From TrEMBL:
GO molecular function: fatty acid synthase activity
Domain MaoC-like: 186-270
Source organism phylogeny: Bacteria, Bacillati, Actinomycetota, Actinomycetes, Mycobacteriales
Annotated family: Belongs to the enoyl-CoA hydratase/isomerase family.
Protein name: Dehydratase
Region described as Disordered: 161-185
Biased composition (Low complexity): 176-185
GO cellular component: fatty acid synthase complex
Domain FAS1-like dehydratase: 68-149
GO biological process terms, semicolon-separated: fatty acid biosynthetic process
Superkingdom classification of source: Bacteria
Signal peptide: none
Length: 294
């Protein structure tokens, strides 16, 4: 992982609706409005406390049990305002609206207790070419009393031509759980109402998740589920087996177009678990994931 910038900017609580308005404005072709390099600063949110009611609502909509520690995916919600603030800033080189969440890697060094007070740091790293566009990592680090307890890298894709465009695509081999047609561990019913509730509890009200018109504007036939809702919901299948110190990696595939039923396939491995979320009839993956003890 690249070195973390030393320049720290303290971030005050801001309206997420305001950030989405900035994201839409960022789609407009304004000469000179965008930098060519990543911002060399850390956005910090200090003294973050966990709202037990908000956490309970998150757990309900994701199908997770309420405990005195938060699920490994919940800090994504806590850090999302800072991530969005960085994405819509004028010195961020890519327009936020239309970016595709490709993968997410979570390192939970130790569980975060509901009673903990957190410091959340977010910075951008590793702008690089991909045959489908440009990739960038939004890196989040969470500390409690100066101790690092949770880290993630969310990788986003901006679709555009690069020097790698047009190259031969490697053949994809599907070895994830369920590729052999096995019976799923469980099936999840996903409705626009459910995802609307997740939008409320997560603060992620991107139009592609809550508005048919907004979704169609970006090429989807209807609203789609949040990738991080899927990433949280599949953990419910193995929730009792997720270790306190855990690495959780997710690669997102085809979006879940709503309403939908999706199959969760799991496989126990020597290192931990492999999970796949699949279309029940066509069999393709909406996401694949691994869960391993640190």
């Amino acid at each position: 992982m690249m070195a973390k910038p030393e320049n720290i900017q303290i971030l005050e609580k801001q309206s997420m609706l305001s950030n989405y308005a900035k994201a839409v404005a960022g789609m407009l072709p304004l000469p000179g409005a965008k930098s060519e390099a990543l911002p060399d600063r850390v956005l910090r949110i200090e003294n973050v406390t966990i709202d037990s009611d908000a956490l309970a609502a998150y757990n309900r909509v994701c199908g997770l049990r309420l405990r005195n520690t938060v699920p490994a995916t919940y800090p994504f919600v806590l850090s999302f305002p800072a991530v969005m603030n960085l994405l819509v800033s004028k010195d961020f080189p890519l327009p936020a609206m239309g970016m595709v969440h490709m993968s997410n890697t979570i390192e939970q060094i130790k569980p975060i207790a509901v009673s903990d007070t957190l410091t959340i740091d977010v910075h951008a790293a590793d702008l690089r070419e991909h045959r489908s566009g440009l990739l960038v990592d939004l890196v989040t680090e969470i500390t409690v009393e100066g101790e690092l307890v949770w880290r993630q890298a969310s990788t986003f894709l901006r679709k555009q031509k690069t020097s790698l465009s047009g190259g031969e695509r490697p053949e994809k081999v599907d070895n994830a759980p369920g590729a052999d047609g096995a019976t799923p561990a469980t099936t999840l019913k996903v409705t626009p109402k459910l995802i609307g509730k997740y939008a409320d509890v997560s603060g992620d009200r991107n139009p592609i998740h809550i508005s048919k018109i907004g979704a169609k504007a970006f090429g989807f036939p209807s609203v789609i589920a949040h990738g991080m809702w899927s990433a949280a919901a599949i953990l419910g299948t193995i929730e009792g087996s997720v270790p306190d110190a855990v690495n959780y990696t997710v690669d997102f595939g085809k979006p879940v177009v709503l309403p939908a039923k999706v199959d969760v396939h799991t496989a126990k491995t020597d290192a931990g678990w492999e999970i796949a979320l699949r279309h029940p009839k066509k069999g393709y993956t909406h996401l694949t994931a691994t869960v391993t003890a640190r």
